[in-house]
Amino acid sequence: MRIILGLLILVAPLHTEGFCEDLFGKPTYKTSLSEAVVNVIQKFFTANQADIQILSRKSGDDFSLLYLVNEILFRIRGAISYMHWHEHLPKRIMPSTYNMLVVDDYRSFQRIYERLSKRSVNFDGYFLIIISENLEGNMEATLNRIFLDCYNRYITNVNILIRRADPDSEIIDMYTYFPFTETQCQDTQPVLHDSFVDGKFSLNVTIFPNKVRNIHRCPFTIVTWHNPPHMFIKNEPGRYILDGIDGNILGIIQRKLNFSLRFDFSAANRGNILQNGTATGALALILNGHGNITICAHGYVFTRPSRISASTNYFSASVVFAIPARKCYSSFEKLFFVFKHAVWYLTLGTYVAAIILVAVARFFSKKVVNFIIGDRNDSPYLNMFTISTGVPVYRLPKRNFARYLLMVWTLSWLVLRSAYQGALFHYLQKSEPRPQVLTLMSLLNNGFTLFVPEDCLPWFSDFPEIRRRVALMNMSLWEYFEKMQDPEYKGVVLTTDIQIDYYNHRNRNKTQIKSLEERMFSSPQNIFYPKYSYLVTTIDLIIQDCLSGGLVTHWVKTFLHEPASESSTAHNPISYFDLKGAFWLTSMLLLLCILIFFLELLTWKMRNAWIVKICRRKIPVNNRNVH
Predict the structure, then answer these.
(1) CATH number, residue 14
(2) Inter-CA distances, 330 with 29, 99, 420, 569, 591, Å
(3) pLDDT at 6
(4) Averaged over 101-107, what is the pLDDT?
(5) Which GO terms describe its cellular component (predicted)?
(6) Mean pLDDT of 149-157
């Protein structure tokens, strides 16, 4: 029966020589392999103030591996905190970054390797593998198999300590592998990194060098697609040019890590990871190992990290429902849209005050009337109206105060009229929607359909009333935005505020797309990789540099406020529909003038007829009196 041992020793050791002697026999404490291990612990693990997790397992009945483990534990007692697990590995502890595996052959390594999980170890951490026995057969092939297993789980910070094959030699060799070199890509061949001779390492190299800092132009497959403003893809002869918020971030990463780009555009959407473990869209390509990186406005979802790895978030967008354009003001209403209500109220109040002043002045003497209104001013109300429309007055008052009032009235209306005419051209061509307060429930009650991307469908599963009105998007986002130019369109689409702002900025001559005031949630933007990818930590450092330098904020502002194309900003010639309100107002005024003209003719004829009738009644009476 195999011995099952689990020790947790923090700072102060709990075992003694007598304890070790009772179990295994007293060790010699003089093996060069344990010396090499302790040397690595002192130079690297202790320097990083690390807590080491020691995992050991033997495949045979020999106790030499346990002797070695006991000797290592005895040598590092009191120097560093460590946890030792033998045979049975932990299931629920904090994942360890610094790990030491003590094995006697490839089979014992395999047994530990198969039980490694993200719960127990951090695959992006550091691994020191100690092989206690000389390997049978081709040692290089066995080491290659170990490194290949490590690379398949994206473990790159790994070294192997093994005694040199010569039985009379006490030299301990440290092997590692470099997956990316100037001549090889994804290479797992063992490389002699250093040798422990006479109590020290001869080359004194960096124990765990960064192996993914320079990819040496090895190709990485990028899963992405054209999705402004996050990703712009321009196809030029022999290459693709990337731009946009995510495109610039990918460009910085590519230049920093020095890898070549190989694109996979087969996925046109982000996709989703299903409950049965399968995936769709871009995430399926990453999950199946067909891509190294996917970047294109990927939002962080808590269910995704269980199957794939995610970077730190570099940007956050609000997820909202874009709603159809509301009905716009008519061309007639635009004539009054230039000024706000307060300006119109002030203008009307000025007119009313002037009319009251003229009406009150008529009750005073002629001298007061001439002082305020001016002499020879027979039509003060008509003069006020003509001056406000820009028609000059030919009969000026003689008194200075009346002239002062005329000057103030003329200048006031000159300013108002100039401001009105200057802004009118802009507002006649502007499609200004009517204000309207909408909520998600009001949209559902009015028969609207909620179009959402595939990866967002699970979000509504817990809301059956909303889920019944949810449909999968079957067009591009920009096609939905074009449909929303029709106020009668009964559909809304789930998107981000960034994409709505970008569309509105690029199409300023169209009706602006609005969003519901209700924000669904905030979506942190991330890069996704295969599970346990060695790129996570390195790329996170690059992203942090971009964030601290303000580059991401700069790119967001650039692509949301870049100069729009001439077609989206140039004013079109004023059309009949733009002036239809002015024509309608002119027609109404002309009809009113014609009606007043006929009323005046009718009044004149009725007045003459009344005078003639009065005269006929009076003449006979006078004649009788004369006779």
Answers:
(1) 3.40.50.2300
(2) 95, 73, 18, 22, 21
(3) 36
(4) 91
(5) plasma membrane
(6) 93
On the question of a cis peptide bond just before residue 524, with omega within 30 degrees of 0, the verdict is no
Chain center to CA of 238: 30
CB proximity list for 388: less than 8 A, separation 6 or greater: 409, 413, 417
Higher pLDDT, 470 or 306: 470
The pLDDT of 135-151, averaged and rounded, is 89
* Residue with the larger pLDDT of the pair 602 and 482: 482
The conformation of residue 312, written as its DSSP 8-state character, comes to: -
Instruction: Render pLDDT for 9-18 as a digit per residue (tens, 0 to 9).
Output: 333 333 333 3
Q: Is residue 263 part of a domain?
A: no
149 within some domain: yes
DSSP state for residue 301 in the 8-state scheme: -
Residues spanned by the domain of 403: 331-429
- CA 414 to mean position of chain CA atoms: 49
Residue found under tokens 């905030």: 522
The β-bridge partners of 223 are 264, 294
**Which one of 429, 445, 464 terminates a domain?**
429
Q: Which residues pair with 316 in a beta bridge?
A: 524
> Which of 173, 201, 229 is the last residue in one of the domains?
201
Q: Please count the CA atoms within 13 angstroms of the CA of 106 that sit on its side-chain side.
A: 16
- The structural domain count of the chain equals 3
Convert the pLDDT of each residue in 50-95 to its tens digit: 788 888 888 776 677 888 888 888 888 777 777 777 766 666 567 8
Cα 464 to Cα 302, 323, 474, 490: the distances in Å are 22, 21, 22, 20
The pair of structure tokens assigned to 610 is: 């009344």
**Which of 52-61, 245-254, 329-338 is predicted with the least confidence, judged by mean pLDDT?**
329-338
Would you say residue 341 lies in a domain?
A: yes
Q: What is the DSSP string of 336-376?
A: TTSS-HHHHHHHHHHHHHHHHHHHHHTTS-HHHHHHHT-TT
569, part of any domain: no
What is the pLDDT averaged over residues 282-296? 92
Rounded CA-CA distance 89/114 in Å is: 11
Chain Cα centroid distance, residue 270: 14
